[in-house]
Structure formats: C-alpha cells, structure tokens
Amino acid sequence: MKKLGFTLIELLVVISIIGVLVAVAVASYNSAQIKARDAARRAIIGNIQTAFEQYFAETGAYPTSGNESVAFEGGIPKDPKGSANPLTWNTTLSTSYCVCATLEAGVGNANSTTCNWSDTGTYYCATNKQ
User: Fold this and answer.
1) Which letter does DSSP use for residue 109 in this model?
2) pTM to 2 decimals?
3) pLDDT confidence of 84, banded at 50, 70, 90?
C-alpha cells in the first residue's frame, strides 16, 4: 500500500520559494510607493510655481513666506508622506522665490532648500520665472 502526501523536504522547498516571492513583491511595492510620492512632490512643486507666477502676474510681486493670500485649491499643499518631509519655500523681498521638496529616492536638482542647484542633490526645487 502506497502512502499519499508530501515529504517534509518538499513542503520546506515550497514554503521557501513562496517566502522569496513575497520578499521580492514587498520590496517592489515599497519602491513603487517611494517613486509615486516623489512624482507627486514634483507635481506639487510645479503647481506651487504656477500659483506663484499667477500671483506675480496679478500683483507684480511674489508672495512672502508667511503670506497665505496665494489661493491653493484645498489649502496649502502638504507632502504626500506627511509632516516628516515638509514642503518649503522662501522669498527674497517679493522679487524671487525658491520652493523645494525633499525626495525619498532618486536625484533631485538641488542640494539644499535654497535652490543651490546640483545634479546630485536630494531636493527638487523650482524658482521664479520672472
């Protein structure tokens, strides 16, 4: 009479393969989330830049850091990950501005939140067009 079933070795091999597949899937998922948040940060920076340029077109000056008269639909934009990586902007005498976000992965275009441009920076920044 023949016994039906799996041996302990066969079960361990299958469980190990499933474990490796799950580990790879989790790593890919986390990487995709980071890239998506960085893409959202770049889009937010572009939207802020557009709002600042519209404000300049209407008033002839850029808003100051504490000025909330720039209308952002839904309020002032927040970082996709929360308050750990706040979006920052600063202005100089209402004649220029620099708006930045800290990237989680990838290479930004600046190495500080003062628009200190660098091809290997960890910040993504935009400055005035005028």
Assistant:
1) S
2) 0.77
3) low
